[in-house]
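Q: Could you predict the 3D structure of DUF2953 domain-containing protein?
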Amino acid sequence: MFKEVNIYLLEKIKIKKLIWISKIGINDAASTGIVTGFVWALKSLIVSLISKDKTINNCKIDVQPIYSQNQFETYFNCIIKLKLVYIIIAGFIGLKAKFKGGESSV
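A: Sure. Here are the predicted C-alpha cells for DUF2953 domain-containing protein:
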C-alpha cells in the first residue's frame, strides 16, 4: 500500500537547492587529509544517488579541512518542493489500496 504512495510522491518531488558544507579537523594533518577525502567520497555518493532521478537546481557541497584543531561542523540546507495536490492524490491512492485489500504477498 505504501509502496505505491512513496513511488508517486518521489516522482513528484523537486529539489530546488542543496547546500552541504562541512569542516573537519583532527590534530594530525595526515589523518585530517584521509578523513576529508572519505567525507568527500561519502557526500559525492549521497548526492549522486539523490540526483540520479532528480535535477538539483542549486547544488553546493564542500569539505574544508581544519588542520590545527579537533573539529567537526556541518551545515546542511535543502529546499524540496512538493505541491499539496500531489499529497492529496497520494492520500487517495493509499485509501484506494487500503479498501482494495492492500498489497498481496503472492
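Q: Anything worth pointing out?
A: Strands lie at 14-25, 56-65, 71-81.
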